[in-house]
Amino acid sequence: VTAADLGLREIPGSTGRGPAAVGMTRPVLADGVVRYVGEPVAAVVATSAAAAVDAAELAWLELDELPVVADFDAAASDATVLHPAEGTNIVMEDEPPYGTLPRGVDEVEVEVTVESPRLAPTPIEPLGIIAEPDGDGLLLRPSHAAPHRFRDQVASFLEMDSTTVRVV
Q1: Main-chain dihedrals φ then ψ at residue 64, nearest 5 degrees
Q2: Residues 32-44: tens digit of each pLDDT
Q3: pTM above 0.90, yes or no
Q4: Phi, psi for 6 (deg, rounded to 5)
Q5: In whole angstroms, how far apart are CA 21 and each of 38, 91, 97, 142, 144?
Q6: Residues facing 132 on adjacent strands
């Protein structure tokens, strides 16, 4: 199945732990634009592992290359905007919580350049989820480090009561 087959609403642009990025929602499966290497583009539903492998081998993807946004300066420049509806790649700008410090003779200005090189695109937790109907609810087996938050997000996304979603 692809995004066109599902008709699901998009994933919110915030996990609930940071600022809301209204225009930075993303589809469950890429729909028209693939924004990063490894973004899910299709899902396989099967009755056995062998059938799932056979079905996955039928998938073929053709992509046109887009400009790369590979560092902080490129992202902050907004030359290539990953979420056009938001109009920027900047999610938030924040000042330190202590407010304005008194200025005096010991005033120092510090500028820091932070680089985050791409080391190896090999996640420790691959994007794998097994979902099974469980009575009136859902049993999920994801590779996820925060099961309670994941449960609440899935329940909200699927408009289910979180008590009917179980994450193992």
Answers
A1: -95, 130
A2: 888 888 888 998 9
A3: no
A4: -85, -45
A5: 22, 6, 21, 25, 23
A6: 139
pLDDT tens, position by position, 1-16? 888 888 877 877 765 5
Helix (H, G, I), strand (E, B) or coil at 31: coil
**Which residue from 75, 80, 84 is spatially nearest to 26, judged by alpha carbons?**
84
Q: Which residue intervals of the chain are DSSP H helices?
A: 3-6, 49-56, 72-77, 147-157
Following CA atoms 11, 14, 20, 23 in sequence, which dihedral angle do they give, to the nearest 10 degrees? -40
| DSSP per position, 98-120 | T-PPPP-TT--------------
The whole-angstrom separation of Cα 128 and Cα 126 is: 6
What is the rounded CA–CA span in Å between residue 166 and residue 62? 37
Question: How many Å apart are CA 46 and CA 68, to the nearest integer?
Answer: 35
**Residue 53 near residue 64 (C-beta atoms within 8 A):** no
Q: How far apart are alpha carbons 14 and 22 in whole angstroms?
A: 8
Buried b (16+ CB within 10 A) or exposed e, 30-51: beeebeeeeeeebbeeeeeeee
